[in-house]
């Protein structure tokens, strides 16, 4: 049903017991939520990653440097004893974000990007930007100050087919935006189409893209295998196989414009298995195992380290991590569910077998 199980021996794949050691990786797009839910998911990410760009789409959103500072403290307080993990904070742009707030964020040293959600595009984006022009003062300041713009790249027009919203965003919004701010450093988040991969590869200036593990492993059939599968529903939604292949090509290409961002986006099981289910896949538990599976299937495990551990740090102008992380080849079954505050969460591909496991 899915590409995870390795029941057929494949000579391109590593034998059991094989290990893969890479520089400690970072997650350049992550949702940690807050409170008891933060407490539940943070240990998973801290076991996998040294740093993560933490998305600001809380309720209420993290719209100021002061809110980002407080959220950062809550994350640090929720870390398991002995964990070596650094949250990299982001600012949630609204129609009213003043240039001074951008400058405060930049000066803080702990805010590394400002996030632009087109209003209504995704989870907790109602306070996002209604029209890019409304954010021009903030964007101008970001360009000046060198603060990265992280973009949820989808148009919100209900008349545009849900599978076309990323492509239309690039044509109608991103290209004009970058013409107006050629010096702005932009990360197009969680890209899902060949169109996005082609644009990022070929565009002028400082632009990069994050790619999730689920968009490397699955096409849109996963949402409809034998019935409706809400745990494969995320935004931007999974696309056709031709797009999955293009994303995989980009990820394994060694092109430093493409790097790891899990977009691990936990929602309580009941909120996904619902009349109107939430968008987001939970991959915080097993992100690197999922990425390793995708890179291995493409015969390019040797390219995982650049993608996971080097290129994102380089783009964000942060030092690369020291220390290593090791994955070991060997089957394990992804748990059916995990605690999530006082509720539960179903990890992506729960119940299926993964061929890699974190070793330490
Ligand atoms: N990716 C998702 O499907 N959901 C994310 C929001 C986002 O990253 O767009 C979430 O916060 O749940
Ligand atoms: Zn998004
Ligand atoms: Zn996200």
UniProtKB/TrEMBL annotation:
<keyword id="KW-0862">Zinc</keyword>
<feature type="binding site" description="via carbamate group">
    <location>
        <position position="115"/>
    </location>
    <ligand>
        <name>Zn(2+) 2</name>
    </ligand>
</feature>
<comment type="function">
    <text>Catalyzes the reversible cyclization of carbamoyl aspartate to dihydroorotate.</text>
</comment>
<dbReference type="GO" id="GO:0008270">
    <property type="term" value="F:zinc ion binding"/>
</dbReference>
<feature type="binding site">
    <location>
        <position position="267"/>
    </location>
    <ligand>
        <name>substrate</name>
    </ligand>
</feature>
<dbReference type="GO" id="GO:0005829">
    <property type="term" value="C:cytosol"/>
</dbReference>
<feature type="binding site">
    <location>
        <position position="29"/>
    </location>
    <ligand>
        <name>Zn(2+) 1</name>
    </ligand>
</feature>
<dbReference type="InterPro" id="IPR002195">
    <property type="entry name" value="Dihydroorotase_CS"/>
</dbReference>
<feature type="binding site">
    <location>
        <position position="235"/>
    </location>
    <ligand>
        <name>substrate</name>
    </ligand>
</feature>
<feature type="domain" description="Amidohydrolase-related">
    <location>
        <begin position="27"/>
        <end position="326"/>
    </location>
</feature>
<dbReference type="Pfam" id="PF01979">
    <property type="entry name" value="Amidohydro_1"/>
</dbReference>
<feature type="binding site">
    <location>
        <position position="190"/>
    </location>
    <ligand>
        <name>Zn(2+) 2</name>
    </ligand>
</feature>
<feature type="binding site">
    <location>
        <position position="263"/>
    </location>
    <ligand>
        <name>Zn(2+) 1</name>
    </ligand>
</feature>
<feature type="binding site">
    <location>
        <position position="31"/>
    </location>
    <ligand>
        <name>Zn(2+) 1</name>
    </ligand>
</feature>
<comment type="similarity">
    <text>Belongs to the metallo-dependent hydrolases superfamily. DHOase family. Class II DHOase subfamily.</text>
</comment>
<feature type="modified residue" description="N6-carboxylysine">
    <location>
        <position position="115"/>
    </location>
</feature>
<keyword id="KW-0378">Hydrolase</keyword>
<feature type="binding site">
    <location>
        <position position="152"/>
    </location>
    <ligand>
        <name>substrate</name>
    </ligand>
</feature>
<protein>
    <recommendedName>
        <fullName>Dihydroorotase</fullName>
        <ecNumber>3.5.2.3</ecNumber>
    </recommendedName>
</protein>
<dbReference type="GO" id="GO:0044205">
    <property type="term" value="P:'de novo' UMP biosynthetic process"/>
</dbReference>
<feature type="binding site">
    <location>
        <position position="152"/>
    </location>
    <ligand>
        <name>Zn(2+) 2</name>
    </ligand>
</feature>
<keyword id="KW-0665">Pyrimidine biosynthesis</keyword>
<dbReference type="GO" id="GO:0004151">
    <property type="term" value="F:dihydroorotase activity"/>
</dbReference>
<feature type="binding site">
    <location>
        <begin position="31"/>
        <end position="33"/>
    </location>
    <ligand>
        <name>substrate</name>
    </ligand>
</feature>
<dbReference type="GO" id="GO:0006207">
    <property type="term" value="P:'de novo' pyrimidine nucleobase biosynthetic process"/>
</dbReference>
<dbReference type="InterPro" id="IPR004721">
    <property type="entry name" value="DHOdimr"/>
</dbReference>
<feature type="binding site" description="via carbamate group">
    <location>
        <position position="115"/>
    </location>
    <ligand>
        <name>Zn(2+) 1</name>
    </ligand>
</feature>
<feature type="binding site">
    <location>
        <position position="279"/>
    </location>
    <ligand>
        <name>substrate</name>
    </ligand>
</feature>
<comment type="pathway">
    <text>Pyrimidine metabolism; UMP biosynthesis via de novo pathway; (S)-dihydroorotate from bicarbonate: step 3/3.</text>
</comment>
<comment type="subunit">
    <text>Homodimer.</text>
</comment>
<dbReference type="InterPro" id="IPR032466">
    <property type="entry name" value="Metal_Hydrolase"/>
</dbReference>
<keyword id="KW-0479">Metal-binding</keyword>
<feature type="binding site">
    <location>
        <position position="57"/>
    </location>
    <ligand>
        <name>substrate</name>
    </ligand>
</feature>
<dbReference type="InterPro" id="IPR006680">
    <property type="entry name" value="Amidohydro-rel"/>
</dbReference>
<feature type="active site">
    <location>
        <position position="263"/>
    </location>
</feature>
